[in-house]
Amino acid sequence: MPNDMLQVEERDGGLLRLTLNRPRQHNALSFALLEQLRETLENYARDAALKCVIVTGAGEKSFCAGGDLHELDSMRSLDDAREISRIGRRALDAVRYFPVPVAAALNGDALGGGAELALACDYSLAARHARLGFLQARLNLMTAWGGAADVLARCGSARGMMLLLKAKRLGACEALQAGLIDEVADEGQDVDELAQAWSAAMTARSRAVLRGQKALAVVMRRSMQEALAEAEEQHMANAWTDPAHWEAVRQSFSGKKA
Q1: pTM of the model
Q2: Which of 65, 73, 78 has its CA nearest to residue 250?
């Protein structure tokens, strides 16, 4: 597994910084990258010195463009769809249930599965030019990795459902207003400045308080995720194998509007 797909940096004060490093692919989440993200977080979960984690992307254009569509194109069966769902969910659950707070620093666009990754984090910070979009419905698809539960938890059932079905790219300020992003950089401000301020606030707290508050949040998130996981996987698999999905993919790859 290539080691440079995920850059891992430990910083003084108990901060772990993880950078998705596939800029030519818009930091798309290949299976190898998902597994590396999961394994890295599972290994660091045992590090008692950690106080917080920041997840970001390489470059200035993309935080994460979602799943690697070219890698997924040959996976067409129900079993394939379930495997896609399970691999991604395991990785994002490692983010959701990490024992200390995790922030997403959106250096650029978070789309599809990338939006799911952003919301799997406890807190989201965004560059002013970043966009966030749950675009799965444009391909006649559903979220696969727990994203629906995270959207519904943040926005409520009615607004959350409409956000998922409309499948719009939201500008950072629009996503902030919708409750999907927590802070947006000012004009001329780099998202790293927001990330530094956030990590400084976290590292100023005791490990006992950080881990205690995160543990309470995990109880709430886990109950919602576990309640919806089976249904999300089944409905995603149904949509994945529907001819309407593959026709939308064909049109997307050919440059036509899905």
Answers
A1: 0.95
A2: 73
